[in-house]
Amino acid sequence: MATVISNERLAEGVYHLVVEGGDGGEMGQFYMLRAWGAYPLLSRPLSIHQLNDNGVEFLYHVVGEGTEILAGLNPGDRLELEGPFGTGFPQVDGKVALVGGGIGVAPLYYCAQKLPQSDIYLGFSRAPFRTEAFRPLAAELTVDVGGLILDSVDFSEYDHIFVCGPHPMLKAAQLQGNAAETSGKRPNVYLSLENRMACGIGACLVCSVSCKDGQRKACTDGPVFLAEEVLFHD
Fold it and tell me: What is the pLDDT confidence band of residue 196, given thresholds at 50, 70 and 90?
């Protein structure tokens, strides 16, 4: 069990949850959160936004009944916190870009702390959030509202690019990584997939991901995959 320290609304439907508890974690890993009884059936997977001395911080977007319950939590409330789970982003050397779209910025803050002086690109369809928190961690911060943040990224300039965002953005990042090869430098592009999850430990196959070497599980093999490994079917 964990205890809510704060649960701040940052923008329409977007919250910053700080809890006391948990067991650390690495860049791109996630926890399964639950603050209810038998219904909704499934816990909610949330990526690590930041670790602090006493626990874990999360950013989340209210998209259904589970996250709506999370949005109603107050300081002192208790919730179940299981994790950390998954295979996250690697610790890398070289020039790094962190690219997030919407709530996909959530895991990149911890990455920015672990990989200081990365270039950071944050895209939002509506009001931006947490951008000023990223600013002191970035070599250069680019924020786009209403456009396509990937248009601001020259993939050929980087050794490694970490991307998290909606499905079409991830597919586009894969294509841009492939295109960069024609310029003589293909970066390692890592995608954090936002697949629906149920168990978080690889037992149920709900989060199956199509890869070149067959079906893999987002909750254990991922959620982070090399872009070149993933097969997008739409």
Answer: low
Residue 48 CA to its chain's centroid (Å): 8
| pLDDT tens digits, one per residue of 12-41 | 999 999 999 999 999 999 999 999 988 888
Residue 55: beta bridge partners?
A: 20
Degrees, nearest 5: CA angle 225-120-123: 85
CA distances from 187 to 52, 75, 135, 228 (A): 31, 43, 24, 11
What 3 state SS string does 63-92 have?
Answer: CCHHHHHHHCCCCCCEEEEEEEECECCCCC
Name the token pair of 212. Answer: 């070149």
| Degrees to nearest 5, angle at CA 223 with 219 and 226 | 135
pLDDT in tens, 38-75: 888 889 999 999 999 999 999 999 999 999 999 999 99
Contact 106, 47 (CB under 8 A): yes
Alpha-carbon distance of 111 to 89, in angstroms, equals 8
